[in-house]
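LacI family transcriptional regulator, Bifidobacterium parmae. Tokens?
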Amino acid sequence: MERKQGKRAPVIKDVAALAEVSVSTVSRYLNDSPKISDDARARIAHAIALLGYRPSRVARGLVTSAMKSIAVLSSNTTLYGSAMTIQGVEDEARAHGYPVTIAKLNGGSTEALRASVDMVMDFNPGGVVVLNYDAAAHEALGMLPDAVAKVAIAGDRVEGVARLDQIDLCENRAGRELTAYLLGLGHTTVAHVTIPGGGGGYSRTAGWEDALRAAGRPIPDVLHCTWDPKDARAIGRKLAHDDAARGGEHGGDARRTTAVFAGNDEIAMGVIRGLEDEGVRVPEDVSVVGFDDHPLADVWSPAITTCRQDFAAAGRRAAALLIERVGAPDLPPRFVELPGELVVRDSAAAPRA
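Tokens:
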């Protein structure tokens, strides 16, 4: 029996009608339930072949209460780190036969955020990966049901959450290392341009502050920026005329800004462009370092000293942890560290005498 062109695709009800069984019996067949007679099993298989029926993963998931799928929650899917992390999740999930749903969080309000989370949970994913890169993602993580398997990438360590595994990108350590590198070049202190969600004890911002405090150096006030390099460019222009970067916590003498630690490489690019707009040279007058090792960091002028993070590896590891937990829900919480790597290029140098 052939389907005529232009007709709708067959659905589970069509299979049930042709096989002369109930829809629930077809669902049990699709989910390999042993509670089906050999006769019914044969008739369903024959009906599926005749109709060319393709089972819906969603329909199967609704019967088993959890789809064999992974959902990814992210506040921004276009940033380099987010995009590479998602790619890693997809690569690992595909290797295990798990489709991936990507959901952009609406962080305009708590109600909007909850609506984003509820929409994802309506599809009963087998597990959820949260790109815990900012406050909205952190809030969304707290909205997920205890029963669902979940992995948080980045952010502060969370204790006592059921079925939660975490991946630490070791940003605090990297922030300390980058700051110590600039101090080692001879800079008296380091200004910091932070990205959204840059707070928390495990963050790169906390690492910057820890390094300055450990060295007994002035701690300038944090310069807050959006994800937009254009806003960082405006900050760069301001820094070009800032001859009094003072230690916000320690006080200290007024001094010219000679080193800047930007929250990521795109922000570093904006700061560099803003400084150069005002005739300030990098690194001759001001050193600038970034974070993440964006592909453009190596070809930017000057090439940007940064911390390389393997976001794709984090995504792959997150998917692997999630798939393991789906198969063994009672596994104890796991905390995995993925350290970054200092990459020294041309954007930082010793300060002029």
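Residues 311-327 form the longest helix (17 residues).
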